[in-house]
Design brief:
Elements: H1 2-15, H2 21-28, H3 32-44, E1 49-52, E2 58-61, H4 63-68, H5 74-88, H6 94-105, H7 109-121, H8 133-148, E3 150-157, E4 163-176, E5 179-186, E6 191-196, E7 200-209, E8 232-239, H9 244-251, E9 256-259, E10 262-270, H10 273-280, E11 286-290, H11 292-310
Antiparallel strand pairs: 1-2, 3-4, 3-7, 4-5, 5-6, 8-10, 8-11, 9-10
Length: about 300
């Protein structure tokens, strides 16, 4: 689109002192004549672009305008670049790569060494261990559906193992605790639901379109059910010495107290099948003390595991 090209040219010129028209034409796959028409349009919009002829000539933005309109500091540019690099570790996108390139073009040659030091100071690799090709393919399909506002169908297995067909209006892809989720309006339930991508199968983008609904992502709407007071249970755990590092990592140091040399963890979680499996994964490092019914349920599940291996 022309507006995208105009914006990209402005960003490029703010970051570089001078560029050749032929270079811009090759970059955007248009003619040199089109580039000069773009420059005229940018000038009419009030952004002073100057052109000079000759061997050392080219297209540039007025120096005073460049200095007065550098809206982002070096630290802010480095923060944006680090964020884009980190997201790219789990989701590869052409737009992220293009955005990174534009960000780097905003940094002058004199600042580039310092900029690289700042962006190399932090890196957040939020991708899982190993290649997750199937997840990436699902994300690409869902991203396409969100962009085009098309309804998506898929087969979904919930946490209880129940499988069914779902028709949804996809709104947002969410990365949480190392897993990708789809936040979508379920047409069957007539409400927003949270779907884990790894549980989705036969993802299909339909030709039917939808009108995007109003949501406020800053409120983390998918966490409302999790944190609902009537859904939470206080649990007291006995932590064996070998399990203290594990408990500290999962529950936080502030959740641990010590009574006569014994480590006790006090935590609050929703009571469901996930909770029982979660407690089991600690093995012998942690023991549920309270409430009694959760202790009994974990005990029964542990016995079932033993029975499987004794067959």
């Amino acid at each position: 689109m022309k507006i995208d090209r105009l914006l990209a040219i402005v960003v490029l010129l703010v970051g570089k002192r001078q560029v050749q028209a032929k270079e811009l034409a090759d970059m955007f796959e248009v003619s040199v004549r089109t580039i000069y028409r773009d420059i005229e349009t940018i000038n009419q919009a009030g952004i002073p672009i100057v052109t000079s002829q000759g061997a050392g000539g080219g297209i540039s933005i007025m120096e005073r305008f460049r200095l007065e309109n550098k809206l982002l500091s070096a630290d802010e540019l480095a923060a944006i670049s680090t964020a884009l690099e980190s997201v790219s570790s789990t989701y590869e996108s052409f737009h992220q790569g293009a955005a990174l390139q534009k960000i780097r073009q905003l940094v002058s040659e004199e600042e580039m060494h310092e900029f690289r030091e700042k962006t190399e100071k932090w890196f957040f690799d939020i991708s899982p261990w190993g290649e997750k090709k199937i997840i990436k393919e699902k994300m690409q399909l869902l991203n396409q559906a969100i962009d085009s506002s098309n309804i998506v169908s898929f087969t979904y297995a919930n946490k209880k193992g129940q499988t069914g067909k779902r028709l949804t209006e996809p709104h947002t892809l969410v990365l949480k605790a190392g897993h990708w989720y789809l936040y979508a309006f379920c047409l069957e339930k007539q409400a927003f639901r949270f779907f884990k991508l790894i549980r989705m199968k036969d993802v299909t983008v339909l030709s039917d379109s939808y009108k995007r609904r109003e949501i406020n992502l800053s409120e983390l709407p998918w966490e409302r059910t999790w944190h609902r007071p009537d859904n939470m249970t206080e649990i007291t755990l006995l932590v064996n010495p070998s399990g203290e590092p594990l408990a500290r990592e999962w529950f936080g140091a502030e959740s641990l107290t010590y009574e006569n040399g014994t480590c006790i963890a006090s935590v609050t979680y929703p009571e469901d099948d996930w909770l029982f499996r979660f407690m089991l994964h600690f093995g012998t490092h942690i023991e549920v003390l309270h409430p009694p019914h959760i202790r009994q349920k974990v005990k029964e599940l542990a016995k079932q595991v033993v029975d499987v291996y004794e067959m």
